[in-house]
Design brief:
Elements lengths: L13 H21 L3 H29 L9 H6 L2 H16 L12 E3 L5 E6 L3 H6 L4 E6 L27 E5 L7 H12 L3 E5 L8 H7 L1 H6 L2 E4 L3 H8 L6 E5 L2 H9 L2 H10 L7 E5 L4 E5 L6 H16 L9 E7 L5 H13 L11 H10 L5 E3 L7 E6 L6 H4 L6 E7 L4 H15 L5 E5 L2 H7 L1 H10 L4 E4 L4 H6 L3 E3 L15 E3 L7 E7 L17 H13 L6 H9 L2
Parallel strand pairs: 4-5, 4-7, 5-6, 7-8, 9-10, 9-14, 10-13, 12-13, 14-15, 15-18
Antiparallel strand pairs: 1-2, 2-3, 3-18, 11-12, 16-17
Helix pairs in contact: 2-4, 2-7, 4-6, 4-20, 10-11, 12-13, 16-18, 17-18, 20-21
């Protein structure tokens, strides 16, 4: 007699079983977390600050080693400021808001004005004496969506906290972490937990999953409560989690291709689904996906000192984190007939040549740079120590649209020279170009002399800014600073859809919990003295970064002199 063949069932990989257990744990605690009181959340945030302090030194040392930054380099400051310092301050900002959320009293301390176009703008930085010292001259506003007025601003703020905590129902949010900046993933988790009342499963990116060794102890109070789990894994783990029955919401920081694979499916299946408008994944998905970020230089009475300063600023916009930022300047827009354009480019090259040494650590950079060069008619190379040169390409509109649509995510820069009549007509043309031709709406920068603003007129200048459809705008600064300030919003301009996601859907940070923000606008003096510690060229950024982390841990006026002294020496 012949035995019948037994059909075997496919076995689930061990990592899938572990993920199931983690999600089951979160599912059990999701309502408990949603119903925690404000005082309970504040207590947990204070504990987290203590735990961050225990690991911050090892965190920064490991991150700098993994990114190839030499020990003792001033570039360690980037890892302090965009790592432990940012997470520590995120805790502080949410503690502040939650402590004043009854009656939304935190709004009483925020200046509100009506813009020339009728929109409401709320000043979120500076909001304390500390801000005025640490962020010299900076002003950050959140411009609300049309329809929000001074009268209904409170009703359009923190609505997730309107209902009694006891009536809230929990959800499980999946956060797919970014691989480039250390604080992105944990800050995204805080947004899910504190703004949306969701428990979180965080899947780290394989590029920086070494941070798990520090994030688990730093965020231990949330893990012990049962509101957070942190896991590692590649695309297979991500796909499994995105389609898991227990996951309600997804937030991704990354590339539009990854977003589309989640929503529509991979490869040919995804293309067919997108063409027919039938998403494979129907969960709510928010995202931050980058783009081709512009920096618009407006002609004006710039001195040689102005050119030197802004060359350092543009170099920082491009080479911070070795160019691996979603809002790194990728399209430098210059006035064609301005007699300072060539001098600015020459100064930029000089700054890059003298920049602190560092390699390109992010996977795929060599291939992306080669593709960028392949689409250029001519190429310049701005050499920089310790890594490949920054590839600089003169660009003519109407030639190869690849350079307007592909985020290179590497040290690469296109230079566009637009015809310039007067400053206002040039600025309007540059704004129209960025809106109509460049992929993405995450962030943009404008460098403009104050006398030029005065010539245009402040009201007309703000009307032009209102036409620039980006979620973050830096004026005489870098829009990336908005990310670090935390009180402003961080995300694309509203209106993108799943089938044309551009720079993403939704915002994070926004620690004052505004429900209907349109964009955040950061304005700085034309030249800041002392030089900001986040400048690529700041010689004591590593010292200032550590001191600011200590300041955020426990604020004290006694800590300010050392910060100011080292900032001045940078």
């Amino acid at each position: 007699m012949v035995a019948k063949a037994v059909k075997t069932q496919p076995t689930q990989p061990e990592w899938a079983t572990e993920l199931d257990l983690a999600l089951t744990d979160l599912d059990r605690k999701k309502d408990d977390w949603a119903q925690t009181s404000n005082s309970e959340r504040i207590a947990l945030l204070r504990k987290i600050k203590e735990h961050i302090r225990e690991v911050d030194e090892a965190w920064v040392k490991t991150a700098t080693r993994k990114k190839g930054i030499p020990t003792g380099s001033s570039l360690e400051g980037e890892e302090w400021l965009a790592g432990p310092a940012a997470l520590m301050d995120g805790c502080n900002q949410f503690i502040h808001t939650l402590s004043l959320i009854e009656g939304k009293k935190f709004l009483d301390r925020l200046p509100v004005r009506t813009l020339p176009n009728g929109q409401v703008a709320v000043t979120v930085v500076p909001n304390s004496v500390w801000d005025k010292v640490l962020f010299t001259g900076l002003k950050a506003e959140i411009w609300m969506q049309p329809g929000v007025t001074k009268a209904n601003l409170a009703a359009s703020t923190a609505s997730a906290y309107n209902a009694p905590a006891s009536s809230r129902k929990g959800k499980i949010g999946l956060v797919l972490g970014a691989g480039n900046v250390a604080s992105i993933a944990p800050l995204d988790c805080l947004h899910k937990l504190l703004v949306e009342h969701q428990v979180v499963l965080l899947k780290m990116n394989p590029v920086n999953d070494y941070l798990i060794d520090f994030l688990r102890p730093a965020l231990r109070p949330l893990i012990e409560f049962g509101a957070l789990r942190i896991v590692r894994g590649g695309a297979d783990v991500g796909a499994y989690l995105c389609n898991h029955d227990l996951v309600d919401d997804i937030h991704i920081t990354g590339a539009a291709t990854s977003h589309d694979a989640i929503v529509w499916g991979p490869g040919e299946e995804g293309r067919k689904n997108k063409a027919s408008g039938t998403p494979r994944n129907s969960r709510r998905i928010t995202s931050e996906l980058g783009g081709v970020a512009p920096t618009i230089v407006v002609p004006g009475p710039w001195s040689n000192a102005d050119i030197a300063y802004h060359a350092e600023l543009i170099a920082t916009q491009k080479l911070n984190n070795s160019g691996f930022n979603c809002i790194a300047c990728q399209m430098l827009v210059l006035p064609e007939s301005w007699n300072k354009s060539d001098a600015l480019l020459a100064a930029l090259e000089k700054v890059m040549q003298a920049a602190p040494s560092r390699p390109t650590y992010y996977p795929g950079a060599t291939e992306r740079l080669a593709a960028f060069e392949a689409h250029a008619d001519s190429v310049q190379k701005f050499e920089r120590p310790g890594g490949p040169a920054c590839v600089v390409v003169p660009f003519q509109p109407g030639t190869d649209s690849y350079l307007e649509n592909a985020e290179v995510f590497a040290p690469a820069l296109s230079v566009l020279r637009l015809p310039a009549g007067n400053a206002e007509s040039y600025l309007r043309a540059a704004v129209a170009y960025a809106n109509e031709k460049l992929h993405g709406t995450l962030a943009a920068n404008i460098l403009i002399h104050p006398r030029t603003i005065a010539e245009i007129g402040r009201q007309r200048f703000e009307e032009i800014i209102a036409e620039l459809r980006y979620g973050g705008i830096g004026i005489n600064s870098w829009s990336g600073v908005l990310f670090a300030l935390l009180r402003p919003t961080w995300g694309a301009f509203p209106g993108h859809t799943l089938d044309d996601v551009q720079s993403g859907i939704g915002v994070v940070h926004n620690t004052y919990l505004f429900d209907k923000p349109e964009r955040s606008v950061l304005e700085a003096p034309f030249r800041i003295i002392p030089k900001p510690a986040w400048f690529l060229t700041h010689k004591r950024a590593h010292i200032v970064g550590r001191l600011i982390t200590e300041f955020h841990y426990r604020t004290s006026v006694l800590k300010l002199p050392r910060i100011i002294w080292n900032a001045l020496l940078g």
